[in-house]
Amino acid sequence: MRHLIDPLDLSRQETGRLLDLAEKILDKPQEFAHCCDGKILATLFFEPSTRTRLSFESAMLRLGGQVLGFSNAQSSSAAKGESVADTIRMISGYADIAAMRHFKEGAPFVAARYAKIPVVNAGDGGHQHPTQTLTDLFMIQRRRGRMGGLTIGLCGDLKFGRTVHSLIKSLVRYEDVRFVFISPEELRTPGYILKEVVEPSGHPWREVRKMEEVMPELDVLYMTRVQRERFFNEEDYVRLKDSYILTPEKLRLGKPELTVLHPLPRVNEIDQRVDEDPRALYFEQARGGVYVRMALILTLLGLAPGILEED
Question: Is 80 a known active-site residue?
């Protein structure tokens, strides 16, 4: 039994095969419409979510399976003090696979230790978000045809952004990737990500404070919001929330083939006028997440042979 807690739980080769399967599902979804007949997905969301929870549910329903779960901690027995370990033990008797989002870093890892079914980390605090990373890689591959040989700018909240941390950990496995980290000083990439992930990879990287100065060199611009829920006080949030806003004027500085991504939700860090630009792919990115999660569900349930490597 395999779980997906960290993006590196899948090897680079397994990731490639899973993304290829997602591509096949996107092209011919009707061929996969009954693959999960009789299977149940549990969505255990201790923290609010729209895209991730609904895309997991959509993925399972499109595969012919069923869904049960909860959308916030207060509607679960966690409100009564039940532990993650006990919750997943109980859910293991109700479902065939579980997707867990939790406000505490490491909670899905704990769940995987006690689960009798595959567990997918759907986001844990400011730590990891592996299925979003798979979605990001899927979109980069579809648009650029490759992952390597690209200059990738990550902009906004690079300190608390779990999507950013997960994406960096995956991208360092590809050749000739150049990173540009765009953020205010207070929200810069954590030191442990730079020292333990980026620097050992040998990939070139730099930090800048202004988006405009690097726009002409980027192949991919990954925007993120400044997350109010990660701040300890409102004053810091208000001071930093409008640090970086992508406008049509700034986008004109970018390459014609630039790919603009965002894990969503967007607040105001991307001007709505940018939505009309063909380089803005964040809504297509969100749609692609359904097919990626369909491929992942099939893989972890053992219904897609040849994706995972044998131990």
Answer: yes
Phi first, then psi, for residue 181 (nearest 5°) are: -100, 120
C-alpha span between 308 and 55 (Å, rounded):
23
The model's pTM: 0.91
- Rounded CA-CA distance 134/155 in Å is 19
The 10s digit of each residue's pLDDT in 204-242 is 999 998 899 999 999 999 999 775 555 556 676 566 656
- Tell me which residue of 209, 272, 267, 194 sits closest to 237, measured CA to CA: 267
Active site residue 259: no
Active site residue 102: no
User: Would you call 127 a catalytic residue per the annotation?
Assistant: no
Q: Which of 24, 51, 144, 173 is catalytic?
A: 51
Answer whether 280's CB lies under 8 Å from 247's CB. no
Are 180 and 218 contacting, i.e. CB atoms less than 8 angstroms apart?
A: yes
Preceding amide of 265 cis, omega within 30: yes
